[in-house]
């Protein structure tokens, strides 16, 4: 009692004790009560995770695996050294000799074999195993400084884990004219809630699903479970995305951190067949390879690691050189999506830099687990290092054409043209341009309903177009920039990306609409073609005037910022269901689909109803979320009167929800699929060239001059006075 009496002996001491008790109570509430309240509020599930591939090996099994891995590694090393142009038997003998040399053994044997052997590690248990040696890491910064950071915190706060950010550094502008998160009220934006042509990218509703597919083989239906969901391409292994990271306070629980998949990025022999959806007592989540084989083959990150996920975005699932898609599961095989999102693969077969042996991290140079995507960007994908340069000029400078006899001429084009404009000749032919999620098509071979691709093309002017770009973009992925002549004539949000007038494309859309009408008799073919090729026709006259005014008043300033050059941009639009209570001149709030309902039944309205009933989507339509982020989100969206909390489902039916095409094409950056040889002069400078110089904002006189064949001949002959941009 006496110590307590001494502690309470003076008013100052009593106040100090009260403050200490309050702080302890708040800390306990934050650590213990807040996580439980948050999980209840958003309907989350957290539990201890287990993985069948995480098995304890005996010493004998460990050594047998080590011997096997060592031999495989030494063989690959020796095989890469011995020349191929000799008799097979002689070559094999040389390989066997080299495999036993000290240098090959030293350089080729996976280093973690020794580490695990010495540490007595016989089971890989996820991040806990990695952190045994890597609790902290040193990071080299561009300014020459070195910092030491907590490894786990570095990962958890990287966009590869949380994939959204409420920080600044976005290169995108809202349609209200503000740079995203440049003001005081910052909100979490990024992959987790970005508007996109795949409504399932509401990761809360589309994280992990087991779909019962019914493929037909020889007249028989053989039901099988298939894996689908956003979680397949993210390193978090829990039952939902890291929703806690969207909040102003709070941290993801330890169970979620223990589910981080270190090996998908760091192992050379990660088995993608393990990357499937599994069901346990608590729900659905994504499995991962936690085998000792994968753990012992940790090595420097190479492109193969990155492309386990990123080739899905660039080359697509059906791209013939997508290695990960060829290992789509021992069971619950992943659904492979037809049609490429960008159609610009990074592979030795289709990209000059990949063919030259460059690795992804040679350009996207990490700082710890933070990986830059560059200063330029038109979408809302969060960027760990927004100030770090990732560009062609980083290696090639602004005068890259040093070996050509026309080098002065070609280097002169750099003032007006991005490298990609000449060196990406075309995208993959299955590049998706128009996708209809509202009218799905039955795929008998896969046994599922799929969104209908209305038009695909990798050709210039059809699958992608050319736009002025200064590094800025809009909230819905539209490139911003302007012709250096400063004219207001260039207006892609009212022209290029709001209309499709190519007769071949229009004819292809009409043919697909006629085909769809056989399955969906209510389709008005001519109206369908009109809104798919002229999405602005969906706007009322009043809304169209508001759009014109917002482009003029809010976006002209960011369009005129800095230096603009002509870049290629992949085009994309999609028909989706929208909440019409929250609409503006650039579209309305896109609603998600429940994957299982969508793929199994093709009942798209039922799929939306199911997804919208997810607890966290319901929270979006309540006051706390409205005040915290949705008002701000809609302001960026161009909706000036705030977020309407009218819930779009009543008695199990959709209310004030309509199917629409987005009011403009998305324009996605394409920076890979680079060809060594550039375009010919006449590809652009001819009457039927791939560039529409008038729509690019040139005066009629200058546009006519640039379209003449003889200017191409003058350029080719080395007449530097005729350089594109010399008198613009």
From TrEMBL:
Keywords: Signal. The keyword Signal applies. The keyword Heme does not apply. InterPro entries: Multihaem_cyt_sf, Multiheme_Cytochr_ET. This is Nitrite reductase. It comes from Thiorhodococcus fuscus.
